[in-house]
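Sequence, please.
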């Protein structure tokens, strides 16, 4: 299954490359699905494709450099032509849970400044309702215990993220809480409520940001557009 999942991730990523045009400035998302995107883009750059990318995490930056993708940043770029990113969960309205890798603030900033956002994933990420994947919420370190109290008042059971035995610190110097809700019936309302809490920097709910989803499974990669009439 894991082997197949990897093949599906690769298939979704390679399909997304069809939307990349010469001269574009791209938002480079994060995660293992995006790894395949970067690998393919790197090969195309080698063959002469002229693109630049803004990476949404340090890991993506490292892979992009390894594959020879030219990078830029927001001091040079006002708007990205296209962002391509992964997701932890995708609902039928294209609302997403992201942040499994811990770079949700950069990912959201990159996607928010793109004309178009494509999400690439294996088919297991598509769900009827968000919530099986614990929602990552980035919070400031100071008084984090009190922010936990406020978040848990919304019905979540939260765990402070730990990596390699140490409390995980995001690339913005913050903590991440993984918040298990029974289900997230209204992602937009939950996001807005959590954002109002003092101590919350950002949530992993990506609301109304996605134009197109490319999902891959045993039948290959399927493109689903926000406007269904455009689906391929
Ligand atoms: O949001 C993310 C990282 O913060 C990733 O896009 C998400 O975790 C999906 O990762 P993968 O492609 O490895 O399944």
């Amino acid at each position: 299954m894991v082997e197949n999942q990897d093949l599906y991730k690769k298939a979704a990523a390679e399909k997304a490359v069809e939307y990349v045009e010469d001269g574009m400035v791209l938002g480079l998302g994060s995660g293992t699905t995006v790894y395949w995107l970067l690998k393919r883009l790197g090969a195309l750059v080698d063959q002469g494709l002229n693109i630049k990318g803004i990476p949404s995490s340090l890991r993506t930056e490292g892979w992009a450099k390894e594959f020879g993708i030219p990078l830029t940043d927001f001091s040079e770029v006002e708007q990205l032509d296209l962002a391509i990113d992964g997701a932890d969960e995708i609902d039928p309205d294209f609302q997403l849970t992201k942040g499994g890798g811990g770079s949700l603030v950069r990912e959201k900033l990159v996607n928010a400044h793109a004309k178009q956002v494509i999400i690439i994933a294996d088919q297991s990420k598509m769900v009827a309702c968000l919530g099986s994947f614990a929602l990552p919420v980035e919070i400031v370190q100071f008084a984090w215990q009190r922010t936990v109290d406020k978040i848990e008042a919304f019905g979540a059971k939260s765990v402070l993220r730990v990596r390699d035995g140490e409390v995980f610190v995001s690339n913005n110097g913050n903590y991440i809480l993984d918040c298990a809700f029974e289900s997230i019936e209204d992602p937009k309302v939950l996001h807005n409520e959590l954002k109002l809490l003092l101590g919350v920097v950002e949530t992993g709910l990506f609301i109304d940001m996605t134009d197109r989803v490319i999902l891959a499974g045993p039948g290959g990669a399927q493109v689903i557009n926000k406007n269904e009439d455009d689906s391929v």
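The first strand starts at residue 25 and ends at 28.
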